[in-house]
Amino acid sequence: MDVQKMRAPELFRPPIDIPEVSYDQLVRTAAQRHPEKAAIKYYDLVLTYREAISMINSIANGLHDIGLRKGDRLCIYTANRPEFILTFIAAASLGVVVSPVNPSYKERELAHQLEDSEAVAILIQRELVPIFQLVRSQHELPHLKHILVTGIDIPEHLEGAETFAALLRRSSPRYQQYDPVTPDDLLALPYSSGTTGLPKGTMLTHRNLVSNNIQFLTALQPTDADTALLFLPFYHIYGIMLTGSFLACGGTQVIMERFDLLQALELCEKHAVTYVFVVPPIVLALAHAPIDLSKLKTVRYILSGAAPMPPEPARQLQEKTGIITLQGYGLTEASPLTHAQPKDPALIRLESIGLLTHNTEQKIVDLETGERELPPGEDGELIIRGPQVMQGYWKAPEETAKVLRNGWLYTGDIGHVDEDGYTYIVDRKKEMIKYKGFSIAPAEVEALLLEHPAVGDAAVIGIPDKEAGELVKGFIVPRRGQQANPEAIMAFVNSRLAGYKKIHHLEIIDAIPKNASGKILRRVLKERAQNA
């Protein structure tokens, strides 16, 4: 059934023209329009677009001078800082491939990414040098030739390194084109979050990221008058999309290294922030914050992504602040955005992930074969096709073949489409709980747990059972100042669920384990249950 034909005209996103340019050209074009406008704010540092472009040119020329060439891999191992953004764009102008590294990585994880990506160079935040030194003392790293470090001097015993500041000072700020860069050249190699096993590199081209920036801007329509507060990690594809998109539209971005509630409120007021981008745990934190949120008075949108957003806390936040709160959807393999809500508040459906972005197609297919397309309202696996979809996994053809089939990206997410074209995600395919042959979506049960007034955060897993296959076990974190009674909470939830979905066990814990993008680490909870 063609869902697009059933949509009301205001819900249909027609195809748009995507420019055939390299990634750096988006910000260069914005800088031509707004040279003296603030592009980046970081503590007391304010960079105009003219200054940002000059620094990008200097970094690009410096990287070329030390020997980096098109196709080489450069790891960026920093927290959210201007150096990350500027170096990413500078590398793009050379055709160098950027592989962002999670700054919370320890020795084993950093070594894996450096070795697997065959990185030729690395930019390291000064505070993270000891971990890099440990890696270098225990691993050969034959490909790694160039080490750049933030700060004004080289840390002790960091042989062969150069400071980022020195490279910037000695390099020309004039734009120089070296090897021609095409839209189909590789640009980014982010590594998946690695909730199981070691992370995989995801191959994204200039076309992928340029397309997704344009799709983001066309769907959400931020302008050069908007200011975004960005604290989501830049090493994650969500953060990469945000920083690139707000530079492409000529907007201003205020950078935080990490989320801090009181600091975020101060920055929103100080810089008249209009867009705040979050993950579900921050929606929970804001909805339940025992403080005045009036400093958010200029904020027009709070957008959540990276994991399913429970509707009830989002409603509470919206009622509390009057700010439009909504969720979108994407994944690293799609650069990441594939779905976004309509701009018109009257058309937003909070429980859904919204409508397809421009130039994107989807199907809901049966879980058994992955081939039969299902009608509206029926749950199956969501598959995606569009210009933002990755080229594959780095050096992993078998893994690539599992998720890229006949041009379609198999997301591993379970959901359905309604008659108007809105998409609803129920859960991850591999996280579905099987109870006597019935499939149970953890996210559905979690959303109900979060409706109970004593529950501040929640997660659900399946635990083995000889008769049923799996039973539902819940974990909750009590809301501050509330007494949580497990029996009463189970009764509350189970009275609102079909019998086969009911919670059999409920445990109170101090915190729900999650990765940096807000996804619940169910394997950690399963290990806890197994060892109990």
Automatic annotation (TrEMBL):
Residues 28-394 form the AMP-dependent synthetase/ligase domain. Gene3D superfamilies: 3.30.300.30, 3.40.50.980, Luciferase, Domain 3. It comes from the Bacteria. Keywords: ATP-binding, Ligase, Nucleotide-binding. SUPFAM superfamilies: Acetyl-CoA synthetase-like. Pfam families: AMP-binding, AMP-binding_C. Signal peptide: none annotated. PANTHER family: AMP-BINDING DOMAIN-CONTAINING PROTEIN-RELATED, LONG-CHAIN-FATTY-ACID--COA LIGASE. This is Long-chain acyl-CoA synthetase. It comes from Thermosporothrix hazakensis.
